[in-house]
Amino acid sequence: MSLVTSPEFIRRIESIVGSAGLVQDPERMHSYLVDWRNAYTGNAALIVRPANTEQVAAVVRLCHEANVALVPQGGNTGLCGGSIPDATGQQVVLSLTRMTRIREIDPANATITVEAGVILQQLQQAASEAGRLFPLSLGAEGSCTVGGNLATNAGGTAVLRYGNMRELTLGIEVVLPDGRIWNGLRGLRKDNTGYDLKHLFIGSEGTLGIITAAVLKLFPATHSMATAWVALPSPEAAIELISHIRGVCADRLTGFEMMSRQSLEFVLSHVAGCRDPLTSEQPWYALIELRDTISDAPLTELLETCLSHAFEQGLVIDAVIASNDSQAAALWGLREGISEAQNHEGPSLKHDISVPVSQIPAFIERTDKALQARFPGVRIVSYGHIGDGNLHYNISKPVGADDVAFKANELAIMDIIYQKTGEFNGSISAEHGLGQSKPAAAVRFKDPLEIELMRAIKRTLDPTGLMNPGKVFAAEQ
């Protein structure tokens, strides 16, 4: 019997979190051990669910003393397996889903302080009830948690205007690998007193410590909106169009999503209730959203003016502007349904890259050409937050191809995509993180000095390598 499954260790864990905070039944454990896509599966000795920061700290101290590895987990909605334990059954999954308190809303300081287990949608609702806006928005917002959003530096559809989680966070509370609690919950816009330590933990995927709470920025609520679905001749047209709209609308431009026809075809085929907003098929589309804090802002007229100019310039082939909230939601449904729809076409190889906005057309052209030359017939699903250079570049098998044979080419396909990403000075992971799917690729495609510095930070904060081992780094050093 290993220490982690010994009656004494389990008794000590239960004395900290109580019976409600301990999951040992295999049937109840299952949902914590498999990611939502069934792409990653692990095993664990225990699922521990602390109810507050002090309990988290006590569990971490106990595991540190016993040399037991911990895998922090929030809503388990990640795409890279970052919250799934390994197959040994010797790790403890530490779920933060019981930590759901909204500790404080400070309208004058425009901040909200929440615990790591708060679901993003609940955070958005709390902000709305206070007459404010928390702008982070993504497809999993009904189940992902603030802790996971912070651990992966989540982005989403409103990054163009508001930034990702780094920009939205003023302070955090962290349990360190030895169980000490760093209280960095400061709602300050200015604090020039040395290193800004919160940025070490945001995006670290639980490998340096466990974020238990955060002070987040709030914004004025928006009261008017205009949404358009636009057909484009090319990605180059999308880049010119977004530049034009930004010049006219400034920060009213909240969202600008680009997607290929192949992306839309999958949604129309597999997502119930969806229909093509336009009468003819075009190679590329953009979903554009303007928002304003003024309730009667003339956003539709402004968007019509921008698109009229774009028609004259040959940047837009066709367009439709939503006339009500229901129509706008239907347009967003086309964009948000892409990832799930692609799963119905068999195994898909998903890549979350970023390159400078100006280089997106060249990246798509060269990478498409290289893939089709090496793997004829693969179906390329390109879509993403074009305004910040983040492209989801996903590959589905050729029609009628064998699943196993297609999956056997995963590394070769990845190499082509990441090599092209590097040629444009881009990143192999824009917002999904590295998890357990990309550590080896990070070593190959990041600057060796960057990797050396990252490992030095890891060794300093977690010298025994017990915090989410095997994530971000292929092997703890």
TrEMBL record:
Keyword annotations from UniProtKB, A to Z: FAD, Flavoprotein
Cofactor: FAD
InterPro entries xrefs: FAD-bd_oxidored_4_C, FAD-bd_PCMH, FAD-bd_PCMH-like_sf, FAD-bd_PCMH_sub1, FAD-bd_PCMH_sub2, FAD-linked_Oxase-like_C, FAD-oxidored/transferase_4, Oxid_FAD_bind_N
Top-rank taxon, per record: Bacteria
Biological process terms in GO annotation: respiratory electron transport chain
Matches recorded under PROSITE patterns: FAD_PCMH (PS51387)
One GO MF term: catalytic activity
Domain FAD-binding PCMH-type: 40-221
One Pfam entry name: FAD-oxidase_C
Family stated for the protein in its record: Belongs to the FAD-binding oxidoreductase/transferase type 4 family.
Protein name: Hydroxyacid dehydrogenase
